[in-house]
Amino acid sequence: MKTLLIVYHTMTGGTRQMAEAAASGARGEPDVSVELKPAVETGPDDVLSASAYLFATPENLATMSGLMKDFFDRCYYPALDRVNGRPYAAMICAGSDGQGALRQIERIATGWRLNAVAPAIIVCTHAQTPERILAPKVIGSADLARCAELGAGLAAGLSLGVF
């Protein structure tokens, strides 16, 4: 059985909602196991045992969150040259444009020699004041549907042997 590993970090709940929607969409493939894990609980063994990845992070100060970066810091070298060619996609819950966080994930994925198999999803909450940035987020149904479709697409690709 192939495994889709969805690694996420959340501070205000938005990224968790996106990751859960992706996991829900992916669970429609009976021969694909879906592992939905917070970044702080995910280690090198999880990365090495997965067939594909979905990385989900909030945008913090125009970059990925520190705890998502910590996940990559802990897992990068143990997985280097051992995950080449595996498929991945990314999701960003952003207050502005999310491009800085996405660039960081893309650079790390390039180092791991992962294969981007879908465009990233960036959900912009437009949170620009301290109060709105720190407030719990509610992701709209249209954006959650896009996340579910991404999860379903990754799982279908694994199931069909497309990647």
TrEMBL record:
Query: Which residues does the UniProt record annotate as the domain Flavodoxin-like?
Result: 4-163
Database matches in PROSITE patterns: FLAVODOXIN_LIKE (PS50902)
**One example GO MF annotation:** FMN binding
Keywords per UniProt = Flavoprotein, FMN
Pfam families per record: FMN_red (PF03358)
InterPro entries (UniProt xref): Flavodoxin/NO_synth, Flavoprotein-like_sf, FMN_Rdtase-like_dom
Protein name (database record): Flavodoxin/nitric oxide synthase
Organism, scientific name? Caballeronia calidae
